[in-house]
Design goal:
This protein is 57% helix and 9% strand. By secondary structure, the protein is α/β, with parallel strands linked by helices. A 5-stranded parallel sheet has the order 2-3-1-4-5, sandwiched between helices.
Length: 308
């Protein structure tokens, strides 16, 4: 009888232990499955787990709407041969006085691939994070759309000059014959960068249509971007007005710029250009029709900013 009782006890406790072990592995098996799914998620190239994403990254709705333009992030995407280096010198002189830092981004292509645009933006934002103070940047590049990469736009500035004077400042005796051929052809060999680089693409953008000669679409897109992102676009022939407008519209960066300009900086004058008679100038002006429309529009906008 005692033996029979012992056998039943052993069977009872063995069964109970089996049930406990089964329940334990059932529960741990579910945890293991979740863990494995996270490991697989990481294996396909992500650097975070699903749980980490939920804890750290807010959805777009949770983040709220950013201001389109950052007032403490300035970008001079300067047009060559238009006085951009004068603005760079002014920014360098004022950075200690106005407590920001100016960063030169160096030379490179003006037309950027999608990857190159993203790399440029990330380079600028990385510098902003590291410096942790307001920054200004300069680089000769066609307008880049920062919102395509989920970033705030910097406050843009620029300066342009009379299109024919800009063209002639880049010409020399070896290229004069080519220049005259372009005048007689009325526009065809003017398109592109070999002889003349337009002002409009620097404000229009990276779209290939921005580089088409006498394009109404490019002209209107450039104007739209100026109104939206450029508090000031200066004019080399109106340097006093340009500096005044910069100080009035962007005092955070340009407070004291007129004093620096008058006391320490020489007036930047256009380079000596080739002589050209009135008839040839009129022909060339017709070739550069939209460039002159843009130039006159910028001059009028600048004057209205000064005169109220």
């Amino acid at each position: 009888m005692n033996m029979y009782f012992k056998v039943r006890c052993i069977l009872y406790y063995s069964t109970l232990l089996t049930i406990i072990v089964f329940v334990f592995f059932l529960n741990t098996g579910e945890e293991t499955e979740d863990f494995d799914s996270e490991v697989m998620f990481m294996d396909v190239g992500e650097s975070y787990t699903t749980a980490g994403q939920r804890m750290v990254t807010k959805s777009m709705a949770d983040r709220g709407k950013m201001d389109l333009v950052n007032g403490y992030f300035l970008f001079l995407n300067q047009v060559p041969n238009c006085g951009g280096e004068f603005l760079v010198l002014l920014l360098q002189k004022l950075q200690g006085i106005n407590s920001y830092r100016h960063v030169r981004l160096g030379r490179g292509p003006k037309i950027l691939s999608v990857i190159e645009q993203e790399e440029l933006i990330e380079r600028m934002y990385k510098r902003m994070r590291n410096e942790a103070i307001p920054l200004s940047f300069d680089k000769s590049v066609y307008f880049v759309n920062f919102t395509q990469y989920d970033r705030q736009f910097p406050t843009h500035i620029n300066i342009i000059r009379d299109p024919i004077e800009k063209l002639l400042s880049r010409s020399n005796s070896s290229r004069e014959s080519s220049l005259l051929k372009c005048i007689h052809m009325q526009r065809k060999c003017m398109i592109g960068e070999e002889i003349y680089e337009f002002n409009i693409p620097y404000f229009c953008g990276q779209d290939a249509r921005c580089r088409s000669g006498n394009s109404e679409w490019a002209l209107q897109n450039a104007k739209k971007n100026v109104e939206k992102f450029y508090p000031v676009v200066g004019v080399l022939e109106e340097l006093n007005m340009t500096v005044t407008a910069l100080e009035n519209k962007l005092p955070f960066f340009f407070q004291g710029s007129m004093q620096i300009y008058e006391e320490k900086l020489s007036v930047v004058l256009p380079k000596l250009s080739l002589k050209m008679d009135a008839v040839k100038r009129d022909l060339l002006r017709s070739v550069l029709k939209t460039e002159y429309e843009f130039y006159e529009w910028i001059k009028k906008r600048l004057a209205s900013q000064i005169n109220g």
